[in-house]
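Database export, one record per block. Field names are fixed; values are copied verbatim from the stored entry.
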Amino acid sequence: MGHVSGTSLGLVETQIATVFGPGDPLRMRSGTTLAPVEVAYETYGELNAERSNAIYICHALTGDAHAAGYHEGDERPGWWDNMIGPGRPIDTDHWFVVASNILGGCRGTTGPSSINPATGEPYALDFPLLDMADFVEVHRGLARHLGIERFAAVVGGSLGGMQVLQWALTHPREMGRALIFATSSRLTAQNIAFSAVGRQAIMRDPGFNEGLFLTRGTTPSRASPSRG
């Protein structure tokens, strides 16, 4: 991508919000309930008095809540810093931008590395399987926490775009526009196969320890899986 005008946001901080609790758990598409649900998120710019200038950013598989600006001590900015900031395409001189880490993302948001209240240990492989609708319900929970009823736009690419599409289909009145990039409504067989290979590369690593690596002090980080 070529040069993008504007300036970086400078130092930013990630915040944590509890958007579902034991008395009001997240009711997932599978029928399972989950609580508590914490969400890591960042905001950039200022919300206007009418609360009408908010934009929600949904991230791709490898993204997180840190979409723009710098964390203290970092040499590199957030993953979409060239798009978000003063004078940039998503101009924080005009827009209030919300970026969050998806459910299961384990970058500050509840996921397999979080403590399961029922066991006192990380969820690991006991964490519920996720549906695109579950991601969206957590986004909507964060919106309620922030007091935003309608976004001027919801933006996302790849997996993020799938979240935007789901949100637009199920709750279209909650957004003025849906901006969807490099995404589709479903995966192809080839893409599903690539994802299966990636999972197997992790699960066949001896350090995976049947998903219990967090409590056993190992890490599934080998460059190539063992054969057998």
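Remark 1: The mean pLDDT is 93.
Remark 2: Helices lie at 132-146, 159-170, 189-203, 213-216.
End of record.
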